[in-house]
Amino acid sequence: MQEINKKKYWLICKTREDAVGIAIKRQKEMYIPHVENKFIYELDCPDDRLAYKILFRFIEENLDFGDKLKLYTCLDGEEEKPRNESYDTEILLEEGRFISAEAERFFKEDNRIESLAQKFQWYDRQYVVISR
Questions:
Q1: Domain range annotation of the chain
Q2: Taking the model in full, what pTM does it have?
């Protein structure tokens, strides 16, 4: 159900792609000790390859050259728990590199977003830096 102008409607999706998405909301009062930037947004992104594809396409389209985006994942209310450094991840979009504690991988240049979405996965208390 979806509410529009105080009336409820069914939201019907023709394809799976129509049903999956991400939501980004500015959090003005939130503090996360692992992130030094004061501009913090809450990201709602399912643990799903299609959602990753949408997320990375959004990032690629909106991140300027030379800029960095930092993501931190945790359960609600656990923002101050220590991060799990073994899950730290760095994604270098222009170089096509994906670096995690596990290994360094490269993603295909011709289909960068699809390749990256296949390699990425959320972990609890994971710190991710994406640079362009």
A1: 15-131
A2: 0.78
